[in-house]
Write a structure and sequence with these properties.
alpha+beta, Pseudouridine synthase, 3 domains, 10-stranded mixed sheet, 5-stranded mixed sheet, 6 helices, 17% helix
Amino acid sequence: MHLPKTTSTSVDGLLLVDKPAGVSSHDVVMAARRALGEKRIGHGGTLDPFATGLLVLLVGRATRLLQYIHDEPKVYEAVVKFGTETDTEDLHGAVTREAPRPDSQALDAAAESHIGTISQVPPDYSAKRVDGKRAYELARAGKDVVLEPVLVTVHEIVLSERELIDGRMSSCRMRVACAGGTYVRSLARDIARAAGSAAHLTALRRHRAGQFELGRAVTLEQLREGHAPLAPAIDALVGHPVQTLSEDEVAKIVRGIDVEARVPGSHAALVNPDAETSFTTLVAFGERRPSERGDRWQPRVVFGATE
């Protein structure tokens, strides 16, 4: 279906994209830049080229909000194939290890043991840096990659759609809720090893990132056709307190002058008096600072009286 091109004059905001397999997160950013005519686009949480699903993009001045957005937990759905490991830990890699398929009970116990804060060694084919180079660059060059384990947090693991061969697990669907920095590929690898087996992913899809949902995303094809429906920048700040400003406070904030903090929290979205109904209400994003006059909002990202 051909969709109309974006007509909004705003280039500050939030854009959710459903990334397909076979393209990088950077490819999606480039498509968004062409669609919007805006170079300042950043994304929260890279997806591997073979993975699909939700990519959160912030556009224009909203890119400065990336460090503040609430995009956890991240929720993924993966298809896990048992019996073999690959060097990339997904279906595109070369087989590096084989092991018997696990039984269902052992797999459940292994999955349960990987919920919580755990130590995880990232995959060799990852964007982690080793001596100034990306790990995947070294791996592709045939060099040994030694990555240090890191602590990651896994909130939930649900195994379903189990396929059995001779009473042992051949594959299953694995739903994971986790904090940022967790590699689902490596999680499947470690769970299988703990169950006395081996595994790699044949599919991986991100469904959620905090309050951001895949159902609100446009496809890459739609984006390439020029359909890039920007949500207002304030939509990127879901979960933060909101304080409505008086006209006098708006005038101060846009000049970088702090104002009285009247809502709780370490940070807040500061909006104009039409906050309840307008889509162009975000004036600034403020950080709480104590002063002799009481707590104040110091503007960290300023958008202006209107966007």
